[in-house]
Amino acid sequence: MNINLDVEVVEEDQTITLTLRGEIDAYTAPKLKDALLPLTKKPGAEVIVDLEQINYMDSTGLGVFISALKSTKEYDSELKLIQLQDRVRRLFEITSLDSIITIESTVRGGN
């Protein structure tokens, strides 16, 4: 069974919000990367990724966010993750990525 990933992008001046729905894994990570990386290459942009409706993410997804973070450093933009469900947030904590990627403190329970 292949769960899809829906990506919605809203641009308002220098703030770009990506709202994601579904799962981030080896099958859907390329779609996320194609949507996210070009946005991080806009100098001065604040890229906000809303993960509230992501109920599963594996290491492939972490790799995409690491690539995006590197890109923000190179292009002087900013990456922020918001509304992570507990299980997704734990992935960032276990790998210590929460110390290098800005994650909004709001935590959502996973049902």
UniProtKB/TrEMBL annotation:
GO MF terms held by the record: anti-sigma factor antagonist activity
Keywords, alphabetical: Phosphoprotein
Pfam families, alphabetized: STAS
Chain ranges of the STAS domain: 5-111
Superkingdom of the source species: Bacteria
Keyword Phosphoprotein: yes
InterPro entries from the UniProt entry: Anti-sigma_ant, STAS_dom, STAS_dom_sf
Gene coding for it: rsbV
The protein's role, per its UniProt record: Positive regulator of sigma-B activity. Non-phosphorylated RsbV binds to RsbW, preventing its association with sigma-B. When phosphorylated, releases RsbW, which is then free to complex with and inactivate sigma-B.
Keyword Phosphoprotein: yes
Family: Belongs to the anti-sigma-factor antagonist family.
Name of the molecule in the record: Anti-sigma factor antagonist
Record-linked PANTHER family: ANTI-SIGMA FACTOR ANTAGONIST TM_1081-RELATED-RELATED, ANTI-SIGMA-B FACTOR ANTAGONIST
Gene3D superfamilies per the UniProt record, alphabetical: STAS domain
